[in-house]
Amino acid sequence: MTTLTVKTRRNLIGPALLLAIAVCGLLYVKWLPYYHRAFVAASQHAIGHSILMGEASAPPAASWNAALSYAIAYGKAIWQAMVLGLLLGSAVQALIPSRWILRALGRRGFSSVMTGAVMSLPGMMCTCCAAPVVAGLRACRAAPGAAMAFWLGNTLLNPATLVFIGFVLGWQWMGLRLALGLAMVLGVGYLVDRFATEQEADATQAALEHIAIKTDEDTSAMFVRWLTILARMSARLVPEYILLVLLMGAARAWLFPHIGPGIDASLAWIFAFAIAGALFVIPTAGEVPIIQAMLSLGMASAPGAALLLTLPPISVPSLAMLGRSFPPRMLALTCVCVVAGGVTAGLIALTIGL
Fold first, then answer.
1. Residue 87 burial (CB < 10 Å; 0-12/13-18/19+)?
2. pTM of the predicted model, to two decimals?
3. CB atoms within 10 A of CB 210
């Protein structure tokens, strides 16, 4: 009877708490703010200033002040979502049975990739804030492709951002983002699964078949384990994250030169902006005012379309945060695919006269 009681508490209290954190946290941090911002986008056709360069035609020169100012602005925009991401990433590992993750996301194949993409839709997090959740899923033996689809889907398929793009940049831009974003999320997830070695696949399958659930752990031990995982994740991820955001803030003048009519629709600029977008870090929907500001300064739309697909999904800080969750070759493949998606977006924009 005692064992049954412990098992029942384990199976109900943990998942209920995780669900409460997810729903309440997302409601406060994401859903309500974006709901109100959608009306601003519809009425003003803008959602704020470019975090990259403000009202200027170029980012500030590389300096400590440039690094610190960007880190502060970026931190103010994402700190609540980062806290929520750390809470969820640690809770996934401590509060629910690992076999739940394995059954939903543990098998390689397109169905798990699709499940990961669908699960990402309510999150609407930026690439760095979603990274702790992805790390938690991978720690619970989620398949690489499913976890990758969840990570990329948070940004590329963000419903709120798609609405902002439509009202601010135009609905043809939203269509381009949705079509290529969906192809990238599902395609990269599938390729990552195909890229996994047989040993990695066998390890996940063995875990799926033989994993054991601890039934002798009481509620207090479960919370202690959660706090321990949370502290360990925070100590490992946050310092490197802050350092890399500072470096990105200082380097933005090198990644994005003076913006104006000189940035034309040539393949060289499309490729350059696709790479720069994949390296740089922005808050959720930050690409919308960035591209709007660049277009207003006379930049061609093709490089802007490249940024539309590469600024949100990955960045140097988020790739570093997931360096222990995916083998380097999988992260390298993801980077190549994201840049290729950005170049494709630029070429499509050039072809259709976006």
1. buried
2. 0.91
3. 7
